[in-house]
Every structure is written in structure tokens, then in C-alpha cells.
């Protein structure tokens, strides 16, 4: 799937409004799978997939007639947005725990200076 924008997420949430609340998680996963497959198709063949678009969420979602964008405060739309964002979060690559620790604390050489004090026996 190509990198997504807020426009992609809003369009995908409108697409999810076509489904009953209990079916939205499956529909969101399916939408991401179609966008991913379309992106692979585009990369291999140099053109958009005829059914699923160019690999963006907006293209994959926009193939169905979408309802108009409801007000942002609409509870059903907020639910659809949460489902879509949660699906995208779950799909995102998770950083390696050791790399996260290294970024949060720094390398061991920088930690020694940070933890040494006149009262330390290091």
C-alpha cells in the first residue's frame, strides 16, 4: 500500500460507513489488503489495477459509491475513523525493541557519562 494521507483515511472511513458497525473491522482489513495488492500490481506493471486503483486507500475505497462526508462529530463517522486508524496502526511495522531502547536511552558510551557522578564508584 502506498503511504496514506488524511484524505485517504477520511475517504476510507466514508467507505466503512457502507457497512454495519460489526462488519467494519473486516471491511477495513479488506480495504488495506486491496490497496496493498493494487500497489504491488502498479509497481510490477507500471499502471493502476483496473479494479483496485493505484495502491492508495482513496483509490481502493473510491471505487464504491461513497456517502457524503458527515460532520466530523457524527458518532458513526467517528467510529469508522477509529476503526480505520486502528487497522492502519496494526498494519504499521513495529520497531525492534532493542532499537527503541537505544533511541530512548542512547548508546552505552553516552549513558556512562550521564550516570557518572562524583559519588559514583564507576
UniProtKB/TrEMBL annotation:
InterPro entries assigned to the protein according to its UniProt record, in alphabetical order: DUF7742
Pfam families: DUF7742
Residue ranges constituting the DUF7742 domain according to the UniProt record: 2-87
Residue spans of biased composition, Low complexity class: 103-122
Region (Disordered): 91-122
Protein's name in the database: DUF7742 domain-containing protein
Organism: Allosediminivita pacifica
